[in-house]
Amino acid sequence: MQIIFHCPRCEANSDCRPHPDDAPVECSRCDWCRDAGSGDFDRINPAIVTRCRVCGCDDLWRQKDFPPVLGWLIVATGILLSSFAWAWHYPEWAIGTLMLFALADMILYIFMRDMLVCYRCRARHRKTVMHDDYQVFSHELSERYIQMKKRQDEESALR
Ligand SMILES: [Zn+2]
Ligand SMILES: [Zn+2]
Q: How far, in Å, from the CA of 128 to the mean position of ligand 1?
């Protein structure tokens, strides 16, 4: 497992690879550490993460572990090559290239693994086992967490 997160103490972007999976999560910059042991994992199947390993939040969404920029780059290259072929009067090559790149994009997308992202602290959990219950991103739920954070910030500002 690899966890990419924003450290709650020093606020640096940190990257932690706990080994074994339920080992403590540590910041690479400061001495922040969270050790929930097996508490973050499913009781029946201890390989499955059920809570955020950084803040303990139960709400996680699943997302393709695939940088969207890469997807766009592949499609853009395909279109570029295909328009060259078109300009040089090779229409079959133009269509063939476009289809090939679209296919490559699709295959890459299918075989990319999913990762889990925390609604509260946005920590990304990569290379982790997950069950099918995890849903994709929900704007409604995300908005709820944003409002919750806003309220907390206001309250702590008043104190
Ligand atoms: Zn830190
Ligand atoms: Zn979290």
A: 23
